[in-house]
Amino acid sequence: MPRAAQRRLHVLRRPKLRQSWSKYNLYNIWRQRDPKIGFTDHETFFQQKWRAKGLLRAYHGEHIKERDWERMFSRRLLSVANMNPRYMAENDGSEMAAGRGSGQDIVQRWKADKVDPKTITPYMNMAFAPMERRLDIAIFRALFASSARQARHFVVHGKVKVNGKVMPYPAYKLNPGDMFQVDPDAVLFATGQPKKKGGSNARQATKAPQDNAEAEPAAAEAEGAEAEAAEASEVPEQDPETTDKPEAPPADMKPTRQAIQKLTKQAKSILARDRDVSTSQKQNLRSFLKKAKPLLSRAGRPAATPTDILSELNSMVKDLNLSDASAEAAATPAAAAAPTESSTAVTRREPPRSIDDLNADELKALHRLINEEEENPADPAKPYHTPWKPRDYMSAFAFIPRYLEVNQNVCSAVYLRHPVARVGSAEVPTPFGYQVNQLAFNWYLRRR
Amino acid sequence: MPPRIPTKSSASSASALVRSSFVSPCTSQCLPSCRAGFSTTPSLERSTNLRRAFMQWQKTIGANFKQPKPEGGHNYLSNSNQPFPLNPQFRSDRVLDEQARELIWEKVMRQGETLKAVSAELGVDVTRVAAVVRLKEVEKDWVSKGKKLATPYSKAVLGMLPTKSFRPGVQNQPLEPINELHIHTATQKQLFWPTAESRQFTREDAAKAFHAKMLSADKRVPHPELIQMEKNLLHGMSPDEARAHFISAAEQSERMAAEKQVKKAMAEEQATKRINTQRFEFRFKEVDSELVGKDGRAPNVVGWKYGMPHYDRKKGMVKIPTSVP
């Protein structure tokens, strides 16, 4: 039997459900059908319990030794009852002793077509409640780590504080009222998109473009199952202003170069139509052409970024100061930035020359953009993809159980109380239903 | 065990694959490990049915779960607020959004309302109200110190969860039941308790029947003041007056709890003698070594006891703290 650390966490063959946000795990949860333990009589009770406990233990703290869990297990299942203050004010409890000592008889509707079953309190779903007290699992439940194992790693590496003190033990059992804080950088790393492959070190990022073009498809194909086609094609659409410069793979300068060439061509054609243009405008155009040439050659160099070149181009176009309608089309930097749109962009309104020209809506949008950039900057030093975005498939796993109160801004949470069962629901997040949990609970009662 | 010095076939599997990929495309047929040049794992020859089914799922159904819903809210495998399709008894509950947390902090810290009053007004559990305020204080502290908040993370997570917000100054729908009674183990047994038929057997009597020291449910609930308020209303008190009574009762109970805590701390402080040296602070307490319990083996007494083994020096005993003050 391989040690827990060596076992593979996610498999497609004979799958086990795990405390993890992996897409394989999501797929396994999706295709998991009711195991139907105990529905037929071809299994002994022992076998039923064995199978049920196996299914659940794979999810609940598979990184915890069975011995440790057995010591943690408690047969005391916590629950609460909702007490309506109005009812308690109206009655002093003696109504429950009425009749033959257990309250007035409820009139049974024997002739009703259908009688709804009573809602039960799913006590058995609380079988793994003591696990939820563990620090590492609480961190996973608070959505600070993408798996219980990762949460454990954070604790061991001193990234977690309990009540303001570093707590290096993942097995620490939280007490009601304990506050735990996780290093925000670790949380952003755990829950954010990973860095794009090959972009992590600067050496690769500054490689010659033709070299990279060769490596890219090869890498994409070698990635195989891990980074499938969907992930490879999923290059996030980003504002060029917020693009992570050194981290991003060498930018595709072709559109930028094309834009410069197009502008140059347009300027030349305007110059050729001698009559429509005034002398000063002609001078402007000529100086523009003069400046455009070195810009074009610079755009061809490997270290060039479209942002730099475009900003320079924008300032040049601004200097051009043409009031002519045809020249205006050439001067639209937006058209230059996106070559596909360039033909349609002719009808656009003149770009604002300075901040004062913006109207209220545009100013608001600008402020919002600046704020967004400020709170979610592109930072190549970070070990995750910047600007930060939630990792894939996170939303399907995102829930916070009621026994935790989380403040995501400071990556801290308070363990309010132990999980409890109520009428109709249990607070322990467990992937299987009542019957499976009941069998597992019975296994750990050790009366087998 | 794989060979320490990689054989030609295993070492070159990755690089060979990279080269051969142009000749014969093997998309999605190789293991992820073959990306690493140092891997000694041989690449998988063929794709399995299982893997193909997974890929298919990923392109069709799985694609819905890759990104959070653009309009916000939960995005679970089942369409409802049930993250695990096989467990209808676990549901994802709403969490307080930023505005609601700010409102709670404002009420408690700025307007000086009691935790119980805020809890009863907004329908948020008392412990949660206290936790929200505590966490919000940490957040404000970070802001004042110029420490960066994890705002993008917060926005993303709250966008994925069902959230609850409150409108100030109006009656709001409660977030959760606030007056929940813990089911005490002593009350879980079935009891045969003969009483006179004529007797008014109340909750008070029931508690005494279960255990001599047990309090009645009216006293054990988190909001006994609410029951009193409802009683006042039933006796014809005006709602405003009943509310005022409730608020003063809540203040009173909170004050009493605070006084009790202070008293306890004072008693602790008085019983401790502190001697501060340059390096350590020694704290001495009077301990009666005769207080050892009925059989002389009470678990929490000081000193070595006959027949009680001390495991704390034994090899392999991990001493994980049980609480962090």
Automatic annotation (TrEMBL), chain A:
Residues 133-193 form the RNA-binding S4 domain. CDD domains: S4. Pfam families: S4. Keywords: Ribonucleoprotein, Ribosomal protein, RNA-binding, rRNA-binding. Residues 223-241 have a biased composition (Acidic residues). Residues 191-285, 331-354 are annotated as: Disordered. Residues 258-267 have a biased composition (Polar residues). Residues 331-345 have a biased composition (Low complexity). Belongs to the universal ribosomal protein uS4 family. This is RNA-binding S4 domain-containing protein. It comes from Apiospora saccharicola.
UniProtKB/TrEMBL annotation, chain B:
Pfam families: Bot1p. This is Ribosomal protein S35, mitochondrial. It comes from Apiospora saccharicola. The lineage of its organism: Eukaryota, Fungi, Dikarya, Ascomycota, Pezizomycotina.
